[in-house]
Amino acid sequence: MTSTANLMSYEDALSSFDPVMGLEVHVELGTATKMFCGCATEFGGEPNSQVCPTCLGLPGALPVVNRTAVESAIRIGLALNCNIAEWCRFARKNYFYPDMPKNFQTSQYDEPIAFDGYLDVEVQGKTYRVGIERAHMEEDTGKSTHVGGATGRIHGADYSLLDYNRCGIPLIEIVTKPIEGAGELAPEIAKAYVAELRDLIKALGVSEARMELGQMRCDANLSLRPHGQEKFGTRSETKNVNSLRSVERAIRFEIQRHATVLTDGGTIVQETRHFHEDDGTTTAGRVKEEAEDYRYFPEPDLVPVAPSRDWVEELRGTLPEVPSVRRKRLQAEWGISDFDMQSLVNAGAVDAIVDTVAAGADSDAARKWWLGELARSANERGVEVTALPITPAQVARVAALVKAGELNDKLARQVIEGVLAGEGDPDQVVEKRGLKVVSDEGALGAAIDQAIAAQADAVAKIQAGNLGPVGALIGAVMKTTRGQADAARVRELILEKLGVS
Asked: What's the structural domain count of the chain?
């Protein structure tokens, strides 16, 4: 296993080599039934409870194409500026692995439903166009759980459990053209592309695209070539990367690993790699097959798909506002700078803020909490901010309590902490922890009198016109009230008691 300790530095790697990337993103479509049968696609069912002879590949079972899945594929292709095939068909991709009970996957090979498109992404104020080679339809595999051993992988496991509920769920695989010329920004461009694609998929309403649930997964291909060389180097493929942060980390690590191997005179093996969230490294999986190894041939049990041009144009009319255009509109509505908007995009918080505003918060408050306390918590947990166990409605409620004067910022942070810890909704956390602002004038007055009596020198300076020591008195009152006073109101009352205008 290659550790980060014995790698060439990222800067040194880029001084000698140019990275070339290829990103393959699998998106589970949110259809009610599977790609070729009527089994339910609900997440979380009892293992092997959502299967039938067709998705189990039993003899005599015949598949039927899911029309909604085809419609979703066309809409995705149109949104990615692709050409939509007038005629295409499915193929059998043959390989043996226990999670594929038919011993082949029904996919599309040389005749995808959508091809030759692009998606523009913005990184550090510049727009990069990522070419789309194709978007094709296929079915998902089952889920293997390897029990025993130290790695959770099949090698060294005592035994494996197979759940075929996921087997046959409609997938769209979106494959980029080689991404060249990215240089040191390669990891950021990869992350930005997957983020932009996720936003687009969600806007289309064809999938929730929740990476943490495996609804969207990225296979990241990376090769290096010496500066000035045109021929691509040997690639590795890091499989099933399931977060934006991990996409960036996986690309960065592979750049350093490839450069270290090549500089030491070694040879890159064309293989799949597994990404490890804990330390940001990758390890070898299996030697990567070429297309001919899968023995593709046309699926004899399915008729070709030939979407009419009228249907395609009808679907084009259903496309939503493009995420990049939407961001510009939101930026204008919120009155924020390009830099601030990019910060929201980088944090993956745009939709959360939109939903928080829709729940009643103003945009300033929504941005404050999602980019502040919640972003910090997400970073500590190593997850996307939207994966935190708190809803936009709950954040809006915290903002409303602050606006009403029932919480100050310090107390609000404690409320958010309680919600994240599973202690209930904001109001329940406030009640359980006793976090409301002390607004009773009598209680505040007593705390202020105590602070004034204890700091005679500060009082004298204030009454002489030097307001600097007011902060010390406010601090003393906040300490007495355990931070549960409104600092601005405390200041007003102190000055009023001391007769200072």
From this structure: 3
